[in-house]
Every structure is written in structure tokens, then in C-alpha cells.
Task: structure prediction
Amino acid sequence: ACTLAEGADVQKLCTETTSPGGATTCTSLYAGGLQLTGTIPTQLVRLTGLTELWLNANWLTGTIPSELLQLTGLQQLYLFNNPYLTGCIPRGLIEFD
Result:
């Protein structure tokens, strides 16, 4: 499980957009530099409208979960400066043109 360091500021982590029908969707999640520890939570796939995910500059451990492939609208994923992430990037998460 991923946890926050004591005193970390968690205000305004999500940039939201509102559809014409009034539904609100989190499109960008900014959690860089919050001293997060633990593994990348697979529950992030519940944020189906996510286009940007910033988890850089934390203390995350383990591998990048392949479940992130379910975020089909994800365009930018920032994981740099997480020295304890291990393993390979899941096939299909990176697309080259």
C-alpha cells in the first residue's frame, strides 16, 4: 500500500474537468514530491478519465503495475526520481511513434 509522509500537503492533487452533462472527472493527478512510500496502488485504474499521472520524486517501491494499462486515456506518466522502483516497464505502457 502507498502511504504519505507525515505533514505532506495533499491539497489540490487532482485537476478536474466537467462534462456537458455535469459529471466531474479527475484528468490529472499530481502526487510528485509528496514523499509517498510503498507500491504504486492498482486502485488508480478507478480514475478512468486520467490523462496525466505524476508520481515522480517519491520513495515508491516494487514494480510498475500492469494494471495501469487499463487507463486507456493516459498520455503522460511521470515516475522519475523513485530510486526503489524495480523491474521493467509493462509492455504496452510505452508507445513510440
